[in-house]
Known about the structure:
Layout: E1 2-4, H1 10-20, H2 40-48, E2 52-58, E3 61-71, E4 74-82, H3 91-101, E5 107-112, H4 116-124, E6 128-129, H5 132-142, H6 147-151, E7 153-157
Parallel strand pairs: 4-5
Antiparallel strand pairs: 1-2, 2-3, 3-4, 5-7, 6-7
Amino acid sequence: MIAPCDPGDFNIIYEIINDGANAYKGIIPADRWHEPYMPKEELQKQINEGVQFWRYTEDGQITGVMGIQFKPGVTLIRHAYVRTAERNKGIGSKLLQHLTAISSTPVLIGTWADAKWAIEFYKKHGFRQVSNEEKDRLLVKYWSIPVRQVETSVVLASAEWREN
């Protein structure tokens, strides 16, 4: 079942993000990796900045989370993670399909350039990778991330997105 997270889910969101992020260890640049991958303060900052987390629950257990952030003219998918033990069961696909369905604007997703499996996952769901120039512009405009992360990331866009 897919439902919005509530404030009581904070620790579970934190746990799932940091468990799921282990897939990036050794893949993303070493200078971008830290333990925990997302500290509680950063998670709270993301929520305060408007990231709304949704959860996938099965048999009473939350097994995946994905954030959505509405910005003027676009929707961002943020922080998509599934528990390591629950990967490859369609949980991420179900969350992504739900969140794109509730969006009324083009959807953008940022991820690490070296996370080839993540890029392929989004492409499988109809997203296309934008040009490097467009990626740089979009990451600066819609995300609040360090320059080094901009350099080592890609942006994927839904079919409705048109480069400007």
